Amino acid sequence: MKPPGEEESLRLGTLLLNTLARERRLWRAPVLKNGCIQGSDISPHQYHEVIVWLREMSSILHFSSETFALGVCVLNSLLATVKTRLKYLKCMAITSLILAAKINEEDEVIASVKDLLEQSRCKFSTAEILRMERVILNKLHWDLYMATPMDFIHIFHGLLMSRRPRLMLSSSQKRPCLQASLWTRQLQHCMACHQLWHFKGSILALAIITLELERLTPDWFSVFTDLLRKAQMESTEFICCKEMVDEYLTGLELSLHTNAVYILDASSMLAFRGHDTREEDGEGNRRRRAQTGDQDMDDFYDGFWCFYDEDASEKTANHRLQDTQEQIWPCPPLRPSSRQ
Fold first, then answer.
1. How far is it, in rounded angstroms, from Cα 92 to Cα 114?
2. Percentage of the chain with pLDDT > 70?
3. pLDDT (tens digit per residue) in 124-180
4. Please, is 218 exposed, middle or buried when counting C-beta atoms within 10 Å of its C-beta (0-12, 13-18, 19+)?
5. How much is the pLDDT for 334?
6. Sequence-distant (≥ 6) Cβ neighbours of residue 196 within 8 angstroms
7. CA 156 to CA 189: how far, in whole Å?
8. pLDDT of residue 271
9. Distance CA 291, CA 297 (A)
10. What is the spatial distance between Cα 129 and Cα 119, in angstroms, rounded to a whole number?
11. Choice between 281 and 209, residue whose per-residue pLDDT is larger
12. Rounded CA gap, 227 and 183, in Å?
């Protein structure tokens, strides 16, 4: 890919200024008070679990990373605006994602609300989602055109290509290579961290990129200061964000073994092929006989558990997931390649 020229650099500079203006106008973040999000009974751990679940839903529905980021921003703005309860959190989250998809996704990707709920296997009705859509739109004044951290990842990436094209060369040419996919993955994890709530998306995106620049080039400081100046950020707030992101990502070990290669361990294949299939077949037959009689009754009661037990859907899903995992054939033995 040919690096963008001076004209493209100017266009990206203008786009950055416009995106920063949108961020200043619409950015909101939840506030913690007494161990919960202010105005709710939602703990940081429960919020983290919902964001992880929302990322899974986004993947199942084949939405882009931009849609996921916008969905989280919409959810955060809503949590910062209204008082709510934990039992509504998942409905708010999936509805925020659906609204983000209606803004970002192509018509071929986005389906009807009913079809989306069927694909994601959510337990909400179409009426509940549509009602929540109206609540979100009214509370946020129908203005969901928010600047997300992913927007800044793309803009900073383009600016680096225009100003420092050598950073974009492949590793086969013995040049450092910026990994936008790694930034995206790290960003998605950071968006679920409550310690990073109070940092705007532009600061969070630049912190992630700067950590990678430090690893890739000794000239990282001049590159960083140029981006910091363009983004009009306070250096003190940025440094605080960068340190917290570094600590968080180090704990997750996201930057380790990103290009790990695994090979088939042929020495263990004999034991793998000698798996006791008779025992599995016997157990499988017993399970099928037991499930045949109980399946209709379980399906009958599942619909009623949803009304009386808030944890019923989660328990049912976990039970089915366990049954599915027990039926999966084990993976052949693999071991990490010793080649660097």
1. 16
2. 68
3. 899 999 999 999 999 999 999 999 999 999 999 888 877 666 655 544 444 444 567
4. exposed
5. 47
6. 190, 204, 241, 244, 245, 248
7. 19
8. 47
9. 10
10. 14
11. 209
12. 16
And the tokens for 157?
A: 């990436």
Pairing relation of β-strands 36-37 and 32-33?
Answer: antiparallel
Task: Return all residues near 146 (Cβ < 8 A) that are at least 6 apart.
Answer: 22, 23, 26, 27, 70, 73, 74, 77
CA 215 to chain centre: 24
Place of tokens 């049954």: 323
HSE-CB at 255 with a 13 A cutoff on CA atoms is: 19
Structure tokens at 253: 């070990």
| Least-confidence region, from 169-173, 236-240, 316-320 | 169-173
Nearest to 93 by CA among 124, 62, 64, 66: 124
Q: Report the percent of the chain where pLDDT is more than 90.
A: 41
- Show the tokens assigned to 274: 């000698």
Identity of the amino acid at 278: R
pTM of the model: 0.69
Give the C-alpha separation, 137 to 309, whole Å.
29
Q: Which residue has the tokens 């296997």?
A: 121
Which pairing describes strands 36-37 and 334-336: parallel, antiparallel, or unpaired?
A: unpaired
What's the pLDDT tens digit per position in 73-84? Answer: 999 999 999 999
Encoded tokens for 133: 């859509």
Number of residues in the chain: 340
